[in-house]
Specification:
6 strands, six-stranded mixed sheet, Nuclear Transport Factor 2, Chain: A, 150 residues, alpha+beta, single chain
């Protein structure tokens, strides 16, 4: 008889990172919004650390999602999350990871964007990890500050 090892808690957090990408790429608005706490923040920062874009709370996040889907329809890009590092303290977690997006251009896959995510997550009463804050540092490695927690 074989036994199944329990899933490490870090993998539950990584699953939140992956759910975000899958919901965004497939245009699943409700699932993407459920990746965030009700007052969650999604923010893009410039190299100097200043804010380029920031959305907080369900209403602002939903508005951003709708605008994004109007310009980048579902199925036209794939987000890949790489080298995710996770630290958990009770019901909170910090994670850092790299990302790339692949888009189709002239019938061929090309790099759309690259950068780093720096996240704060909390585990909800339902056991699901959600973003309290997702910071996006976009650009080649020399443009991304050393902002990761791990």
């Amino acid at each position: 008889m074989s036994s199944v090892a329990p899933i490490p808690p870090q993998d539950d957090v990584r699953d939140a990172l992956y759910r975000y990408c899958e919901a965004l790429d497939a245009g699943r608005r409700r699932e993407w919004l459920d990746c965030f706490t009700t007052d969650g923040v999604w923010e893009v920062r410039r190299r100097d650390g200043s804010t380029f874009m920031r959305f907080r709370g369900m209403e602002e996040l939903a508005g951003y999602f709708d605008e994004l889907m109007a310009t980048v329809p579902s199925g036209t890009q794939k987000h890949l999350t790489l080298n995710a590092r996770v630290e958990i303290a009770g019901e909170t977690a910090v994670a850092s990871s790299y990302f790339v997006t692949v888009v189709g251009r002239d019938g061929a896959p090309v790099l759309g964007a690259a950068g780093e995510y720096v996240d704060r997550l909390v585990r909800g009463g339902d056991g699901v990890w959600r973003f309290e804050e997702r910071l996006v540092f976009s650009g080649p490695p020399d443009l991304i500050p050393d902002a990761g927690p791990a």
